[in-house]
Amino acid sequence: MKIRSVTVSDVITQREAFALLFRQCLEGNYAVSDMDALVEKKLESLLSHLNAKDAIVLGAFENEELLGFTWAYPFTRVEEPVMHIAYTSVLPGCQGQGIGAKLTLELEGYARAGGVKRLEMYVSKENEPSIAMHKRIGYYVHEFVMTKPVEG
Which of 23, 69, 78, 109 is 20 to 30 A off residue 34, Cα-Cα? Predict the structure, then answer.
């Protein structure tokens, strides 16, 4: 397995794999009436960010076939350089093999080289495999996100 930067060509040629990986991330977190449209929107956003070169997208590939990816972007929070991990997803048949951890650890190298002092992400509390994997590689809960639906 090789981890490398994802290219626009990768997204175009392996669109179905990227769509499946996005769907996997989104279905557990968002109740939307048209998941296909949301996945398509994420694919277009990914292509836009790759073209703008304003995000880091790494893929795990075996014989140039996509197994998983992570997508992150840097920003500044109260004068601290931070990198937000927006998505990390591994194909169902490849989970449990350390691919997500390898992607995340590789991303840390990019963050370090860019002067980033901290990485962060949102993880659904129901996503126990992701929470366990991130804890194994040194991540911890820093804060909670509280939500309340607004009715009316």
Answer: 69
Q: What distance in Å separates the CA atoms of residue 137 and residue 47, rounded to the nearest whole number?
A: 29
Query: Nearest Cα to 6, choosing from 53, 38, 75, 74?
Result: 53
State pTM to two decimals.
0.89
Answer yes or no: is 22 within a domain.
Answer: yes
| Residue 143: inside a domain | no
Instruction: Show pLDDT as tens, one digit a residue, over the chain (152 residues).
Output: 999 999 999 999 999 999 999 998 888 667 778 989 999 999 999 999 999 999 999 999 999 999 999 999 988 888 889 999 999 999 999 999 999 999 999 999 999 999 998 999 988 888 888 889 999 999 998 887 887 889 87
What total of structural domains would you count in the chain?
Answer: 1
Alpha helices (H) along the chain:
8-13, 15-27, 35-52, 99-113, 128-136
Q: Is position 148 within any domain?
A: no
Residues paired with 85 in a beta bridge? 72, 121
| Distance in angstroms between the alpha carbons of the first and the last residue of the chain | 50
